[in-house]
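Below: protein 1.
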Amino acid sequence: MSRIALHLNRYRLVLNRLAPAAVFVLFCTSGSAADVTQYYLPAAFPVTLRFSALDPARAPIDQQWLLSELTAALQSQSGRQLESAGEATVELTGLRNRLDQEGSQIVFEYVHVARNRIGDEWGQTLTIPVSYRIERSKDVITVRLSPPQMAKFATRTTPGIFFLPTPKLGHIKQLLDDFTAIMNNAAFLRLHRSVLLGGAEEAGVSPQVCIASFERLLGRYGYVKGEERVFDPQRDDVFLYRTAQNNVPLKIAAVPYRGGSKVFFEAWVPFELRADGTVAGYELPQALATDVRRILEDQTPRELESGLDGIRNRS
């Protein structure tokens, strides 16, 4: 049985013996003031991360999105992912991060706490606020992360009913080692996003022939369960476009134009920003337009001919 389950069982056994009024106090009463101590962190140098400032369509990368994704990516590197268990009282354990843009900080918080219905928590937390400075040039967004010298360790006792056990964090050194590993690996982070690419091409055949060419050479796109439906395959002509790493839906609309057709295309295609300034997927706008033209000329798309060799990287 896991440590979380053992703690929850202990809570349930005690709560089952409490009067309803006492249970209400536990679930709805604010916790007591925290007992706070400080821990020195292992010496760490600031970490400088560099990301492309432009997406594959040459549009500026949103700075707030980048910071939010960076916060989530740092948390994902932890060996102590956040877990929760329970219903009326929820027990949380692991690392949770939050972005504090007003204070220019990414706050790392290792927790083992219980939380009641009104959001109050009691237990133990280790908080490490990492300051950041972000600068933008024409082509690069630079993020400089500066770990602090001290971490704040706080214990908040159980509200209302003091004989219930207070959740414990465990060995602080192990948590500090986890944080150090995250910072050491920050330079290897990769952020993922999709961009809407589109355009128009002319063809000398009817709209029906154009659509038939896409269906024959690409096939229809089938959404899997739980996948976001960015296009409606019931109303639109949506085809399976293959990149080196993903299959993406390609929307095609063909209308009569000058004795032939004008074909409009749209696709949300993935790309990747890396913390060393390199990128992946940035050749896709040109590749997509080229493949649409090839299909309209009744030729096999370039990606299928090359056997999906891989998305090239650009420094």
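Below: protein 2.
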Amino acid sequence: MANIITSALTWSQEDAAKYFLQPLFISNNDLSHFDVITNIDGASIKLDKYSSLKGITKANGGTSFSASAVQSTNSNVTLTLDRLQVEHAMRAYAFYSHIKSQLLRNGVSRDDMSGTLLMQMISEVLMGGIMRDFSTILWWGDKTAGAGTQALSNGIWNACDGVAAVAYTGTALTDLASLMDNRSNELAGSEQVMFVSRAFADKYRAELTAKGVQGAYEDLQGGIANLSYNGIPMKVMPDFDVNIAEFGASLSANSPSATTKVECAILLAKDAIAIGTDWDIQDVDMWFNKDANENRFRMSYSFGCALKDDSLVAKIVY
């Protein structure tokens, strides 16, 4: 290898899944509470929901049969995939230096570098930017009102737009109590998880700390490692604050819609959100552009998001 990388690379379907799609859709901790569908064939898929039955138990015996008027009905929501493309260019010498430093850090000689190892290193370099964009699309995507990366596909807040939100009052404990009251029976009876902005989590920690002298001292010394409320785990999302500040102005009133007001929380039933992609249709490759003396990278994949039912979500926003 010289002091630049001139060979073209094309990731096989298996390598593309291993280095790019799995970190996005499978080993992504943010998606562990969602229903991730990786084998959508075509542009969309319909997600079925059956209403529950009741009143079908009768007394034993009698001369006639009286059927319940309540019957199970089927409805569905459509999860639509959007085709996304990642493009990146990096000066050849700078890119080579970065890859070389990655190799040295792992104790690998640059002269012994194999094609597979090179793919792995390049994937690690690129996945940082891809993951940041993916988080923006996943949560804040809005094809109608969004701009830039935000406009590429509809995300979770957009999917939950039809659900009225509890208004944030500035007191996290009060608003969390209101959030519990605002839950549907379906949500309250489900396994739940709450995603909160860092600003909301900081406010909640401060209010918890102020509740008791001894407990407050211990919390101030060691911090509060894992937040929860009413037995529901909270996942603190620092990128919420950044994305609200950048994209909040384009979101609806049922979402965090003020760029200077970043306190928010969204409570979801497990698997209430469906995330879709097509595992088999993707394209990843890299080549050297002599004219610009750059290494070019391109990746294509699909993404879609849908809320299965409005009864499975509750939220707090300004």
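The mean pLDDT is 87.
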